[in-house]
Each structure stands twice: as structure tokens, then as C-alpha cells.
Design brief:
2 copies of one chain form a homodimer. By secondary structure, the first copy, chain A, is of the alpha/beta class. Chain A is built from 13 helices and 12 strands. Chain A is elongated, with a radius of gyration of 26 Å. The first copy, chain A, binds a DNA duplex through helix 2 and helix 4.
Chain lengths: ~325, ~325
DNA sequence: TTGAATTAGTAAAACGTTTTACTTTAAAAT
DNA sequence: ATTTTAAAGTAAAACGTTTTACTAATTCAA
């Protein structure tokens, strides 16, 4: 069964393609198509189950009602939750989301942007990595709405939604210090993205402000994408060799690996060993003892992102760029 | 800056559009375009950064190199992990994935199928729900490759990849029985999908085969999409009111809620109260005590799905439908 | 009663590709 | 010296829409 085209409908209704198109797009009134014709055509459309070919439509109009979402890794719960929220909200406004993971590869990120571009997505929501500034700039000069989230790119002047990573990190370390911790470690990753750097800066600054010397060897940078077992080994050696009494994990998956490491060396979390994870995760609430975590307000972030992009999409004139910083919450458990 | 079209390239190179098209599509040799022209055109393409408009391409060719993936909920780690694996593998073969969540709504699922259809995706990977049989059948009569996974639809004759839910459930219950458990509960959901039904059947059959009477009130069906707190309350009343010594959770998110419930009523898992979760999750490994789980072989499932769909896509003739059942593993912790 | 305005609708161009069927020139075969 | 074949390339149709500019018929105004 050949799929129906607008032409088939036109023929069946005995009117022109133009007329059908006007009716489909709600412009019938405007273009003075009679009520009778409208009814007749609509009936035929309903009965036949005709659905306009969006590809043809996009080719003609230049837009797609699709928003591209580029994230680091959909299997990371932070991103998958954000993605779900964004998808939900976009869907309600008639937009679809295509998403794809960069896995922190600059090449893949560039490729994704190109793919989205050649598929004529209407806007971009990107959790960016360094090295794609140029590509994003091209989108901007092309007048495409771009919203960065989670991480900012300082060289790029566009919209950004994120939380205050510096502050959250700073406060986490301060909470350790208030509890009398002295040897506070930071386990982070080696990827060079603003949000990770800020977490490191917050760590450093909190130490300095509290007259605790900063020791390079208390900061472990785990190679992104490395095998988890290796990560666990690295952490075990950190936890064993140093007199650490507290550790901040800069991402939730690092914290999870960290918990595994601690379990393996039978080190218990408690009075003399405190832990905070960045980005909450179900594991932390259920862990015994439960684990404190920096909780980013996912719902708010998603809401802001989608609201920003939709207002860009609907406004004909270029809106002013906005930087929205939403506070994180330290959930002490 | 207007975006470049194939025509711009043709003009710049002083050749016809046809020639450029042949070169782009690697048909230059075939169509006897001289080496010199090929080189020249390729150089211009490289320098100008021209990327073919995929929309126009799709309109003309009728395919998109996009595979649609329809799942229940991307924020569920089972699905997000599968999605990531599928995306990865598809990507390597030059296919992109568009995914979207149904949230177990028949209407949304139908809408998604329609959206994918009107966007001319080349194939469909669907974790289906009851009520969309007709829509899937339409895809099939339309000769589109469809792979169902995780759950099968018995009315539909197409490809399916999944694990043996009946068996895994059966074995889980048997393992309880071997440990001397007598009052074994099942916490499941009320959604009417084959995979959930099979888990219930496995539970029942294992009891029967071991001469343990089946009690209706040991099976709790949690309403899908209901607020988690309500779920937790329901579970608390189950765990408190009955003399239960073991419980199988039919999904990982139910198990997580269950663990929260247990924590709230201070019931500890151990000698006289055993737990198994269906679908593994990081929580279970790290929980104290760690929680046994039925582990579906995600990698294998993803691999099989993608391999099936790719072979369908590349073969001109209709291939025979395959039902691939991959065994799950009960991880005893 | 004529010209203007309104109503109801349509023909055809355009979006950017791919692909079929064709042309022209040169080389090879007879 | 003619015909055949091969090499190198191109014109134009087609994919399914949207949209602009148009026509024809009717009504209205003066």
C-alpha cells in the first residue's frame, strides 16, 4: 500500500493541493476556503489516515520541530533524568527531541552537531565540551538557538543554564571542615570542562579560606572512559596510603566506584571518614550509611532550558542571552 | 551566510549537479567521472565545508539512516543502558538513533510511531505495550523492519529479542525455596505486558512445582506511574502485615522503592528475610547487605537487536523473523 | 451599470537532493 | 573509412510539501 500524499487527498476531494495544504495548516479561514470544503477534506483526511510527510515539509519550510540534545552519556542517570524531563516538556509544546551522547569525544560532538545541522533541527541544547567552540559559534551566526547546560563555555556568548559548581563544592568542603576534617581528598575526572574545573576550584578555595594547606596528592584525577576496575584500584590506593578523613567525589559515577573501592578494602564511612558525592543518585540514599550528596535541581534546570529555547524559537527577533545559575543543595545524610 | 547547496559546489567546480552528486555518493567511478574532476570537486567540498542536506536526501531516497527507538522510560537505567549500547553500535554502522519514551501510554506510543513514520525512519526498535499491535502491523505491511525487545507481543509476527522472564522468575523463586523460604511475596506492576506477566507466571509455577500454595495476597501489583511515596506505603503494609520471608521484585525501580520501605520500617534483609530484584542496578551491589538480582545481558541484547535490524535493513528481500531469547543470570549476592 | 472589493479557489515555483536517460567526443574494431 | 564501444559528463524529472501570485465569479458601492 503506497503511502498517501497530499495529492491523493486532493484528488479524492476534487480540490487542489493548495486547498488541502491550507486546510491542514489551519490557514483555511484566512485563505477563504468555504466551510463545506473544509469539512469534506477533513473528513477524507481522517478516514484515510493521511499524515503529512514531515521530511517534505521540513525541506520546504526549513524547520523541523525537532530540538537536538547533545549530552555526555545517556546512561548516566543525571543526564538521562534531565533528558526525560526535557523530552516531556518539549513534547507538550509540539517539539520532538533527538538526543545523542558525545562520550566526551570532541570528534563525536562535532559530528553530532553536523548531523543535527544537516537534519535541520530548530534548536540545540548542549552539554558541551571544550574544542567545539567553533562549531557552536557557527550555529550562532546561523541564528540557531543554542542553550548550553551543565557546563558553560566561556568563549561562547550564548544562553546557559547550570548550577553553581564552585559554590556547591566550596560548601561541601566547608561542611567537612566544620566537622573537624583535616585531610580532605577530591576525586575528580581529567576532562577539561568548566563544571569540573569549578568543582576543583571550590575545593581549593575552601581549603585556603580555612587555612588548610592544599596538597596535590589529595586530588586524584581519574581518566574519563577508563575501565571501572582500574578506577577502583586507583581509589583504593588513595584511600589506603593517605590519612584521609573525608572525600568529595566530583561526579556520581566516581562516587559509586569509590563506594565499591571502600567496600573492597573494608573501610567504613562514619565518624572518622566522611563522604560527599556530587550529583545525587539512588545509591546514596539507600547506602548504609546513607551518603551525603550535592543535589542539582534537575526539574528546574530542565524547565529553564526548555523555556529558554522555546522562547527563542517563537520570537522572531534575537533575544538577549541569559545565564541562569540555579543553586544546588547539599543533602546531608 | 546562506548554507551551501550542491548547486553552489557544482557552479564553483564548473561541473553539473549530477557530477557532484555522483562524487558525493561514491558513484563517480561507476559513472566514469575522471580522476581529475573527482579530485577537484572533493577539494572544493572539503574547503567549503559543504554538507549535504539530509532532509532533501531523505525526501528523494525515501530513507533516512535513522532508526527509531521506542522505550518505556529513558530515565530507567535498564533502558538508558540499552539505549546507549544500541546508539553506540548503530552509530558505528552509520545509523543514527532517535529515541523517545512512551511512559506506558498507548496514545503516546501511537503518536511516536506516527511521528517516526512521518519522519521516514528506516527501522523501528520497540519495547512495546499492549494496544499498539495494529500500528505495528501497519509498519510491517509497509515492509519496515521492526524489532521488538524486552517484551513481546504475541499477536505480532516479527523479530523479538528478550530474555526468558518466566525462567528467570522461576529460578529466583526456586532459589528462595532451596533456602527454606515458605512465604514468598512478589511485588510487580499492573501494566499488562508480556514480560511482566511471565514473571508472575514463573513465580506461580515455581510455587506449584514445589507444593507451596499460591496466595493472592502475597502478590502486590503496584500501579505504574503512581507516586513513589504511595508505592512505599503499600509495600510497608505488605511487609508488616504478612509473615513474609522472601520477596521478588519484578522490576528494579520497584526493588529500590522496596528497599526504601524496608529501611523505613527497620526491617533488615538477611537470614530470615531474603530479597531478589529483577534487573540489576548499581544500588544492589552497593547495598548493605548486597542484593541478589536477575541480570539481563544488556550487551548481548543490544548487540542482537542491532544486528537483526541492520541485516534487515541491508537485505533487499524479506528475511525470516527471528525470536532470540537470551538467558538471564541470577546474581546471588 | 460600471468599477472595486470580496470570496473561493488554483497553478506553479521552490526547497536540495538522486537518478534515469540522454549527449558528445574519442578510441577501438572491422 | 565507417561503425561500435567506451568514456565523460549532463538535463531534467521526481520526491511531497508550502507559499506566492494569480484567476474567476460574485457582491457591493456609487
Amino acid at each position: 500500500m503506497k503511502t498517501l500524499s497530499i495529492k491523493d487527498i486532493a484528488v479524492k476531494a476534487g480540490v487542489s493541493i493548495t486547498t488541502v495544504s491550507f486546510i491542514i495548516n489551519g490557514k483555511a479561514k484566512d485563505k477563504s476556503i468555504s466551510e463545506a470544503v473544509i469539512k469534506k477534506v477533513e473528513k477524507i483526511i481522517k478516514e484515510s489516515g493521511y499524515k503529512p510527510n514531515q521530511i517534505a515539509r521540513s525541506l520546504r519550510t526549513g524547520h523541523s520541530n525537532i530540538i537536538g540534545l547533545i549530552i555526555e552519556d545517556i546512561s548516566n542517570s543525571f543526564f538521562s533524568r534531565i533528558a526525560r524531563l526535557i523530552e516531556d516538556k518539549a513534547y507538550k509544546k509540539g517539539y520532538k527531541i533527538i538526543y545523542s551522547s558525545t562520550e566526551n569525544s570532541v570528534d563525536k560532538a562535532k559530528e553530532l552537531i553536523n548531523m543535527f545541522k544537516s537534519r535541520k533541527v530548530d534548536g540545540y541544547i548542549i552539554s558541551p565540551i571544550k574544542g567545539i567552540e567553533e562549531d557552536i559559534q557557527v550555529l550562532l551566526t546561523d541564528n540557531k538557538p543554542v542553550i548550553l547546560f551543565d557546563r558553560n563555555l566561556s568563549d561562547i556568548d550564548t544562553n546557559y543554564v547550570g548550577s553553581d559548581h564552585f559554590k556547591a563544592s566550596y560548601q561541601s568542603i566547608e561542611s567537612f571542615i566544620k566537622k573537624g576534617k583535616k585531610n580532605i581528598a577530591l576525586v575528580t575526572t581529567d576532562i577539561d570542562v568548566e563544571q569540573i574545573v569549578e568543582r576543583l576550584d571550590g575545593y581549593k578555595q575552601a581549603l585556603i579560606d580555612n587555612n588548610i594547606p592544599y596538597h596535590d596528592d589529595l586530588v586524584v584525577k581519574i581518566h574519563f572512559n577508563q575501565d571501572e576496575n582500574e578506577t577502583i584500584e586507583q581509589m583504593k590506593s588513595l584511600f589506603r596510603s593517605k590519612e584521609i578523613d573525608a572525600v568529595l567525589f566530583a561526579t556520581n559515577y566516581l562516587a559509586i566506584s569509590g563506594l565499591k573501592a571502600l567496600k573492597q578494602i573494608n573501610k567504613t564511612i562514619g565518624e572518622d571518614f566522611a563522604v560527599i558525592a556530587y550529583d545525587d543518585h539512588e545509591v546514596f540514599e539507600l547506602h548504609t550509611p546513607s551518603i551525603s550528596a550535592v543535589q542539582q535541581p534537575l526539574e528546574e534546570i530542565a524547565e529553564t532550558v526548555i523555556q529558554l529555547i522555546l522562547s527563542q524559537l517563537s520570537s522572531k527577533s534575537k533575544l538577549e542571552n541569559q545565564q541562569v545559575i540555579i543553586s544546588s543543595k547539599l543533602i546531608e545524610r
